[in-house]
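Slide 14.
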Amino acid sequence: MQRRFFAQNGRPGAGRKRDGAGGADVFVEVPPGTIVFDSDGDEQLLDLTEPGSRTVFLHGGRGGKGNTHFKSSRMQTPRFAQPGEEGVEKKLRIELRIIADVGFVGLPNAGKSTLLKVLTAAQPKIGNYPFTTVIPNLGVMHHHERDVVLADIPGIIAGAHKGAGLGIQFLKHIARTRGLVYVIESTDENLEGTYQTLRSELSAFSRSLAVKKHILVVSKSDLIDAGQVDPEKVKQFLRVHTPDGSLVTSTQTVSAVTRGGLNQLRDALFALVSETADKPEVFDSGELE
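Slide 15: predicted structure.
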């Protein structure tokens, strides 16, 4: 991977009052969602979100002026010239924050990746062991003639903001989302406790991320139908979080195995994105390490 970029040097002037050629520009292509920081501090210098956009970031040095430039009626043959200046050099830190409409958060093996797979054409890694997802996954859900980009990030556990598990470094990838989906497994012995743990970990990372509107999903509802989970426990949990229009926009029970509840979840995702479509994503980048 190339880590150092140099623009071409300009050329010296020539006889017959000819200017030297300017140096060619250097273009560094980065994906949308790239943020540029000064490596010597946390100052954010660029936030590149628009596909195909170009930004002049570091300018080359000013060209020099030959002795002819200083010629005057009183000085026919100047014996001095003005040298060119050095271009700007800067050491940078680059971060990519994936641009998605909705981000999935939950404990390891809560069923986030499986939901992403059945809702989109994505093929995330799925397995019956902790932290199957070790990098963010993206998928596109097409619903009601609209594409909704979904992002699944690695599982979060209690103490993640202190480095437990895979930590919370991947939360920056859903910082730009318009909303979230909290995914909690139906077999969880403490549904409310898990929900509050996730909320607490997000809050420790970013206050603005923690107050995003979200859908509350209880996954693996087929286990409820199979009698392996007390349905009253799930109903009571969802009853406590009846959508109020402020943070929780919808509550759902879904099963990727039976496909139960998936259409309702698609509608809820579409509604969440549509509701926030004209509102800018808010994220306090000063809270990042």
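Speaker note: The radius of gyration is 27 Å.
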